[in-house]
Amino acid sequence: MTSATRSGLIVPLEEYLVHEVIMGMLSAKYGGSALVDRWVQDHQKDAWRKQAKASGYRARSAFKLKQIQERHKIIKPEDSVLDVGCHPGGWAQVAVELVGSKGKVVGVDLQSCIPVEGANLIVGDITEPFTQQAVLDAIDTEVIDVVVSDISPHITGKWDIDQAVSLMLVADVFDFALPILKYGGHFVTKLFQGIGVEELIELVRPHFQTVKRFSPMASRNSSSEVYLVCKFHTPKRGPDWEIRPAFETALEERQGGPEPLDDVEPAKSTFTIRKRNTPKE
């Protein structure tokens, strides 16, 4: 069957032509409005899902990791990989393919996954000591080559809260993973753009030779989602290497300091307000 390429996807020529005709009709009717953009985004989502299903991947997010790998070459054969936020298993599938039979893939998530052949998937909260120990036991080596994280918090629907919690979660993953990431290792994590992102990136930079933002084509329908690609780990020495405490301090400074305490006694002052005398009519 004849085919054509659209947004990195190989699609049948008939589907491509239908897409072009519909785009022309929508643009003519709505003049390139947001409705057309929304239609394109939804259509692309469906296209990635179809290609994921056809390729045997559990979710279209598998193509995000494949595109990160294609651009940044973070995983090599025989590597050991920690996949944080591994549900439903698409990234673990890709990681297993990349490391080969002599590599190792360990995944962790709050939700259980259907087993992925070649990967050890753990159910638990990566911020809890019990789960962290289970992950260390599964890795069974002093250091790991690569950490990939597609983790997201439980969504409340309130963007500012969800985005802030997401960044704190990313900071927690860094603090767990950096001590076990080998010298020269790589770390990739999802971020949601917003307040605090720049502060977090600046705290991460001293730990790696290069830190770059990357938006895979498979996730471009979400304008706030971006991946931080940190390459060539150079462990930071000293007592202040942790990301989370420094990040919390940076956010407090950004907001003008910590919130005032409710039970503070009012201080006495000699300042008084004097009314200006105005002549009577």
Largest sheet: 7 strands, mixed
Label the overall shape: globular
The SSE string, one letter per element, is EEHHHEHEEHEHEHEEH
Derived from helix and strand composition plus strand pairing, the structural class reads alpha/beta
Based on the structure, what is the oligomeric state of the protein chains? Answer: single chain
The DSSP helix count reads: 8
Number of strands: 9
Low-confidence runs of at least 5 consecutive residues: 1-12, 269-275
What is the end-to-end distance?
97 Å
User: Which band does the percent of strand residues land in?
Assistant: 15-25%
CATH fold-level assignment of the largest domain: Rossmann fold
Mean pLDDT: 81
- Give helix % range: 25-40%
What's the architecture of the largest domain, going by CATH? Answer: 3-Layer(aba) Sandwich
| Rg from Cα | 25 Å
In total, how many domains does the architecture comprise?
2
CATH superfamily (homologous) name of the largest domain:
Vaccinia Virus protein VP39
Structural features, described:
- With 281 residues, the protein is of the alpha/beta class.
- It has eight helices and nine strands.
- The protein has helices at 13-30, 34-55, 62-72, 90-99, 129-139, 159-177, 197-204, 243-254; strands at residues 3-6, 9-12, 80-84, 104-109, 119-123, 144-149, 181-192, 208-214, 225-233.
- The strands form two sheets. Strands 5-4-3-6-7-9-8 form a seven-stranded mixed β-sheet, sandwiched between helices.
- Helix 3 packs parallel to helix 4.
- The termini are far apart.
Summarize the structure.
By secondary structure, the protein is of the alpha/beta class. The chain contains 8 helices and 9 strands.
